[in-house]
Design brief:
Blueprint: E1 11-14, E2 21-22, H1 24-40, H2 48-63, H3 70-85, H4 92-103, E3 111-112, H5 116-125, E4 130-135, H6 138-148, E5 156-160, H7 165-174, E6 182-186, H8 189-198, E7 202-205, E8 223-224, H9 229-240
Parallel strand pairs: 1-4, 1-6, 4-5, 6-7, 7-8
Antiparallel strand pairs: 2-3
Helix pairs in contact: 2-3, 3-4, 7-8
Length: 241
């Protein structure tokens, strides 16, 4: 089922957000605070978070990636949308407050996923080439990597605004990685697994909570890890087959 070469250790490409650290919860907490604030303003129709999500997705698509402006702008746009719909005068100071509230997401140090550093250390010491392919705003992602002190585990770190099949293929070419002798490990079926499968990589899905924008049906075979330590077991077992 999984095509791993026997002569050399397979390369392992990790995702970062909600694979090695928890970031989705940070955004959920801010969304709940935003919802509470909107309800206090009289904007309580039961659809505030859905509208926010639509603006957030539209911003990612408009700007071509997960830039740090997308989420904060979505909060301001949602506030503006409800003001217009309910014929309430837009308070520019309040709109800027909501944008600033969204920006606080990038100042919070994310919590590490249990066993993350243990798994990275084990794989590194065992001789597996480790890489990090992370999507998002470069400055935000790099700062988070430094905050949790995970940057030293990887031979190469690449931060891109959006993950695509072409991005995976280019990364493998740049690092001289044979896709058929490599694993992609991540929590997003859309971003981390399906794109990798399309170029012949093997995938391990770590089903931590994620934004619904990341949801997608799998296009092929992959493994599911209940915890990060399962990744070691899967990789070692496949090498022995």
């Amino acid at each position: 089922m999984f095509g791993i070469a026997k002569k050399e250790k397979p390369s392992i490409i990790f995702d970062f957000d909600d694979t090695l650290v928890y970031t989705n919860q940070i955004f959920d907490d801010i969304k709940n605070r935003f919802l509470w604030e909107m309800q206090n303003l009289g904007f309580a129709d039961g659809h505030v978070l859905q509208v926010l999500n639509q603006f957030d997705i539209a911003n990612v698509q408009k700007y071509g990636g997960f830039y740090k402006e997308c989420f904060p702008f979505a909060l301001g746009q949602t506030y503006e949308f409800y003001c217009i719909r309910q014929k309430v005068l837009i308070d520019e100071a309040k709109k800027q407050y909501f944008i600033s509230l969204g920006e606080t997401a990038y100042a919070i140090t994310p919590k590490e996923v249990p066993q993350a550093k243990m798994v990275l250390s084990f794989l590194q010491k065992a001789g597996y080439p480790l890489f990090l392919l992370s999507k998002g705003d470069f400055q935000v992602q790099w700062a988070r990597l430094k905050q949790v002190q995970m940057d030293s585990y990887f031979q190469v770190i690449k931060i891109v605004p959006q993950k695509t099949t072409a991005v995976f293929a280019e990364f493998c070419r740049e690092q001289q990685i044979n896709p058929h002798n490599a694993w992609s490990i991540g929590n997003s079926m859309k971003a981390d697994i399906n794109h990798a499968l399309r170029i012949g990589m093997n995938g391990i899905h770590v089903p931590n909570p994620s934004w619904d924008y990341e949801e997608e049906e799998a296009i092929g075979d992959y493994l599911v890890a209940d915890c990060l330590w399962d990744c070691i077991r899967f990789i070692e077992h496949t090498e022995k087959e």
